[in-house]
Amino acid sequence: MTLATPWFADVDVSAWIGPYPFRKVPHPDPEVLVRVLARERVQRAWVGWLPGVWHRDPTAGNAQLREALAPFSSVLLTAPAIRPDWPEWQRVLSHELEMGVGCIRAYPAQWGLEPGDASMTRLAGACAEASVPLHLTVRFEDLRQRHRLDSAGDLTAASVRALARAGTRCMVVVSGAGRDFIEEVWWGLTPDERQYVRFDFGWVWGPPEDHFAHLVRTIDATAWQMGSQWPLRLMQQSRALCELLPAVLRQSLSFVGRS
Amino acid sequence: MNIAALSSDRDVVGAGHEAAASERESDTPLAGGTPLIDVHAHFHSDASGRADWGAYNASRLHAGERIGVIAHVASILGSWGYRSPTYFPSPPDLTEANQWLRAFAERDQDATGRTHPRVFCYVAVNPNHAEHALREIERGLAVGAVGVKLAASRKADDALLDDIAAEAAQHNLAILHHVWQDRRREWPGQDASDGVELVRLASRHPDTRFLLAHIGGGGDYMHTLHAAREVHNVYVDLSGSGIDRGMMDATIEAFGVQRVCWAADLTLCTGLTKAWALESIGLSDAHLADIRWRNAVRLFPRASFMFGDTVLSV
Asked: Which residues does A129 contact at the CB level (< 8 Å), separation at least 6?
């Protein structure tokens, strides 16, 4: 990746639209996201329905999401949430797959699903069968600013390891992880298991601590995906992290031609 | 300034921003070619208890150059927890750290052949050791310190801080005060203050300039905006790892462009992101300059911030 390339990334794997229950976020609208992606030179985004993360049943939110994204379907790919501990989830998944998706999202922390939960493993297996990535979110906000009602806590690294170890061959994409989380997952998996885990690096620290440089030196270049967590966070962060890498590391990364 | 317009235009792509994006591809600094001063920087000394202290400092300076930071106004918090706690540093650790930072700034100036330093020093003090704190400020003044750093050794509204605040006013030193935005409960490892407590101190010392640290550094920044917006000797820095959309807009709306300073603290990456985002929220060049460097010049009159061959002034 260099800034001379026309695109910074093929896909922002971690975007949402819709309001956030715990604070105001400006303009969480698909047409704004399309403009921001163009500005940041990102071709497409996997887009979820933000308020649906805290709904007991995400199905209605999936429908709202698809309707809102329809005019922008060449750029914004639907990322519906599938709750595998509810009855008939396979039917909901089949419907979404028929309609077309960028990935499937799951929120085990918000749904109270512990590491190794059998229903999550079944969902991963179904995603693998459909050749669709399963996207998990570690956190949406820094712990210290969360609303008192936002009490689910972070997704644990153990949950990711359990999915990767389940042998489903599902590609698991993890958003919102910092250095400790990423290393705990990466070095807790066999080389075969690692092939099926990807991280967006938007929450990793750059200089002067240089966590991102350390991770790029020690973890396969293929493990990294660009993810912004828009509309909660500024999309420029992924580019800033890459720009501040030492040149030799910057050149080892490419987010173009990946998706 | 039309704050409503500022907010609503925030993510709208315009010709100005496209030009800014192209500029990032050239040899100009990543954050643009106009002055940029980091008013909240830290370095480590050889007593910090981490083997990579030198690499950390070098990384800060190198990344600063890439971004376009022309000056780092910095402190070292004692031994960063190695011999005494980071937020409760002992007097000997503070003295050593303050001296080390001044020597580091001189070494950096010598090594780079600059006529003026690019590292400027806060005097870091612990108000639980009141006499030591005042002596440290006196020592710092004699060798060019430009401000005072208060972390989290005592709540900001404690009477022990009054002499320090008065001393700072007497010598025209700004105080950078660590703040946990609406901390809601006591967190381990520090006696953190929030905006309400800093405002109590600032109200008792209207002639002292306080810089409320890292609006993006953890906690609920919206609480701070309510607490401090009307207290005109309280400024705020934008540093911290938090990059919430809407945070900078709300901060500028609450404080006005002349009480907001760009800064990075522990994460220059988020500092760069915020510098880019400032370009896209519709500020005039003059208001951008206020946030990027002019407010720093106003806050630190003892510092000579150089941009090229020119000492910056307002």
From this structure: none
Nearest to A4 among B25, B221, B270 (CB): B25
Interface contact flag, B7 A206, Cβ < 8 Å: no
The sign of the torsion formed by the CA atoms of A39, A40, A44, A50 equals negative
Tokens of A155: 């997704």
pLDDT digits (tens, 9 = 90+) for B170-201: 999 999 999 999 988 898 999 999 999 999 99
Q: Judge: A233–B218 Cβ closer than 8 Å, yes or no.
A: no
User: Distance from B167 to chain A by nearest Cα, in Å?
Assistant: 32
Q: What is the mean pLDDT of residues B22-43?
A: 84
**Smallest Cβ distance to B243: which of A3, A32, A233?**
A233
CB atoms within 10 A of CB A229: 28
Q: What is the C-alpha to C-alpha distance for residues A132 and B35, in angstroms, rounded to an integer?
A: 47
What ipTM did this prediction achieve? 0.96
pTM over 0.80: yes
